[in-house]
Amino acid sequence: MTTPHINAKDNAFAKTVLMPGDPLRAKFIAENFLENAKLVTDVRNMLGFTGLYKGKKISVMGSGMGIPSIGIYSYELINFYGVENIIRVGSCGAINENLNLYDIVLAQGACTNSNFADQYDLKGTYSAISSFDLLKKAYDQCINKNLPVHVGNVLSADIFYNADSQNWKKWQAMNVLAIEMESYGLYCNANKNGAKALSILTVSDSLVSGKETTSEEREKSFTNMMEIALNIG
């Protein structure tokens, strides 16, 4: 089966798919962590691979940037390819002063300024949350590896260059840990369609301190979260 956005064959994907935003990060994970990794989809250069990790079949595929993009790919993976677990491995910008560069953030829940959930016609505000099973496994991995880890809410923002440059402080006041752009859509799709999802994020920059990493570091150096995701997949 193929979709408008994925040209993989039936059964090409494992039951667990890691989803970095950057397709080159997906390629990096496949080449450095998976055995016998094979390219299974490349529509619009949104690369997807399947291979073995410690003898278990695992897939990795880029999601692109933003809720609309991950909304498309996660929906198709779950509904057309039978994927049961999607683990986002991405970067985030810290808005909590206790977060440092390279710290791990496990997104227990995701807030948003997107209207993605309007499609469900809910008479209220939907709280998009992760799979507790995946969350607990990831947290235990972090503790066992003695990694700095933070669990809580993130903001899945629709806007990267906000006209109100101080808008993040309002979310900071609500104890939101960090800002990224995908988790809310992923969690909605997973919860609506009977799958499990978790976002494991690495702090790439801090709006509080002004510190930041390079694009190359984000592509190749965030290996702790990659290994956590692979181990719980």
From TrEMBL:
<feature type="binding site">
    <location>
        <position position="44"/>
    </location>
    <ligand>
        <name>phosphate</name>
    </ligand>
</feature>
<feature type="binding site" description="in other chain">
    <location>
        <begin position="88"/>
        <end position="91"/>
    </location>
    <ligand>
        <name>phosphate</name>
    </ligand>
</feature>
<dbReference type="GO" id="GO:0004731">
    <property type="term" value="F:purine-nucleoside phosphorylase activity"/>
</dbReference>
<dbReference type="InterPro" id="IPR035994">
    <property type="entry name" value="Nucleoside_phosphorylase_sf"/>
</dbReference>
<feature type="active site" description="Proton donor">
    <location>
        <position position="205"/>
    </location>
</feature>
<comment type="similarity">
    <text>Belongs to the PNP/UDP phosphorylase family.</text>
</comment>
<feature type="binding site" description="in other chain">
    <location>
        <begin position="180"/>
        <end position="182"/>
    </location>
    <ligand>
        <name>a purine D-ribonucleoside</name>
    </ligand>
</feature>
<comment type="subunit">
    <text>Homohexamer; trimer of homodimers.</text>
</comment>
<dbReference type="InterPro" id="IPR000845">
    <property type="entry name" value="Nucleoside_phosphorylase_d"/>
</dbReference>
<dbReference type="InterPro" id="IPR004402">
    <property type="entry name" value="DeoD-type"/>
</dbReference>
<keyword id="KW-0328">Glycosyltransferase</keyword>
<keyword id="KW-0808">Transferase</keyword>
<feature type="binding site" description="in other chain">
    <location>
        <begin position="204"/>
        <end position="205"/>
    </location>
    <ligand>
        <name>a purine D-ribonucleoside</name>
    </ligand>
</feature>
<feature type="binding site" description="in other chain">
    <location>
        <position position="25"/>
    </location>
    <ligand>
        <name>phosphate</name>
    </ligand>
</feature>
<feature type="site" description="Important for catalytic activity">
    <location>
        <position position="218"/>
    </location>
</feature>
<feature type="binding site" description="in other chain">
    <location>
        <position position="21"/>
    </location>
    <ligand>
        <name>phosphate</name>
    </ligand>
</feature>
<dbReference type="InterPro" id="IPR018016">
    <property type="entry name" value="Nucleoside_phosphorylase_CS"/>
</dbReference>
<feature type="domain" description="Nucleoside phosphorylase">
    <location>
        <begin position="16"/>
        <end position="225"/>
    </location>
</feature>
<feature type="binding site">
    <location>
        <position position="5"/>
    </location>
    <ligand>
        <name>a purine D-ribonucleoside</name>
    </ligand>
</feature>
<dbReference type="Pfam" id="PF01048">
    <property type="entry name" value="PNP_UDP_1"/>
</dbReference>
<comment type="function">
    <text>Catalyzes the reversible phosphorolytic breakdown of the N-glycosidic bond in the beta-(deoxy)ribonucleoside molecules, with the formation of the corresponding free purine bases and pentose-1-phosphate.</text>
</comment>
<protein>
    <recommendedName>
        <fullName>Purine nucleoside phosphorylase DeoD-type</fullName>
        <ecNumber>2.4.2.1</ecNumber>
    </recommendedName>
</protein>
